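Record filed below.
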Amino acid sequence: MLQFSDQLRQQVTPDAVAQCALEGLIAHLRLDRSYIVSYYLDEHIALLDYQIGNDTVPPLPQRLDLSEYPEASKAILDQTLVIEDNFERQGLSETEKRNSARLGMWAMVAATLRKGENKPLWSMVAINSTPRRWRADEIQLIEDVAERTWTAVERAKAEEALKQADRRKDEFLAMLAHELRNPMSTIRSGLQILRHVDANDERSSHTVLMMNRQTDHLVRMVDDLLDVSRISRGKIELKKERVNLVEIVSQAVDSVRSLYKEQGKRLQVELPTDPIYLEGDVTRLSQVVANLLTNGARYTGDRDQVWVRLSHQRQQAILQVRDNGIGLAADQLSAIFELFVQVDISTARSKGGLGLGLTLVKRLVELHGGQVEAQSEGVGQGSTFTVHLPTLVAAAEPIPTATPPVTNPAAVKRILVIDDIADAGFTLGMLLKLKGYEAHTRTSGQSGIEAAESLQPSAILLDIGMPGMDGYETCRFIRQQAWGQALVIIALTGYGQEEDRQRSREAGFNGYLVKPVDLEALTKMLTDLLDKDPNNVGLA
């Protein structure tokens, strides 16, 4: 029985548990059929949850009417029901005997359990197609197996429910992040417009800069939500290549210097002069460094300091980010990397955040074959976060290529924006006009196709998630037209997973930008794609 219990514990789904139990019982007792049934007495029915057997006892129907078995139903309520010979069984009505014989049930043991006041009756049933004298130890075995199987099935159901809830949580976070991107796209475009038209007004300029910072912060939080969801579901893929970690850290430091300056905090950086090469994803490694630096800024006080040091020891890159901020208690050193965990003191809570940044750091570092750890002497004593990453053998630096002269990217180029959210399309179109483009907007795939044919734009910025004819279908239709085969078409979307990018390539898009779109990234992509030979514009 211990071995049987071990086998049940190894099964991870309710179906697997039931299959294992029924197969084991049939083999041990040489049964013709065994099944698990739930009784719903208020409805006077029994439903077969699982059954296994051979053809001597045909499969039972999934639903049994208990009114056809009144005496047997009463007996099952009180105790284990034992039938050794259907026609000799005292207490069964003639109708019940005929029904049992029709189903091939000549000998049976039904071990019944009632679990909880509101739970239905549940039985594990052993059947033979010929009369059988059941021994006491066989009946006891069936009762024990029924009890253990019930426990194992309930455990598997609970675990499955937890996994399903976790999947739904991840799906919700991904959908929430996607839905937030559309209003953020409009807000960011509007702020960029104000930045251009109110540049000479000091108060307006200060306000716009402040709103831009908060919008960027919101974008980072949404990105973190999406990334956590992707990693949890195993849907994040690293684009690994040979990279110089010194350059990555330097660029990440530059990206947060304004944050430190605004908060009056000092950032001391110590980087080696020689490159440190490793195989990694530039974007994700930059995210690791930026998250650690942002974390340092968040949990240090006014005029406090953060130190960054990168070194190379024994084929490992060692990145340390140290601060003299609020510190960590001993029990927080590992918990701080868990999802949604924040330092549990009032000072930390006042700093905001979702408790995602360090979770992403840990998981991204591990995806690169490294590890990260936190150290602190205690609350109020500052913290040190140390990242270890495996490195490659150094190679010669490539010879830099000459930078081409900068030209006016907008030089009389007509752009068509297609987005079902009118505000988003309007603000993006206005931004493009401020940058010198001729911009037109449409709010559906069909109206966008008609405009593309008549306007013959240089490029189309096409939203993916539109009702009716979505961006994929719209792009495919345009590509099928003679006038649309050489058009530059760039996808604008709130979805940023690799499968989404692959799908856009297959539909015929040349470029792919995730909302809210950064104006500089957009104009650079337009310049790069429009300056190419129309016959050589590849898919993004």
User: Anything to note?
Assistant: The longest helix spans residues 136-197. The chain has a mean pLDDT of 81. The CA atoms of residues 193 and 431 lie 6 Å apart. The longest strand covers residues 45-53.
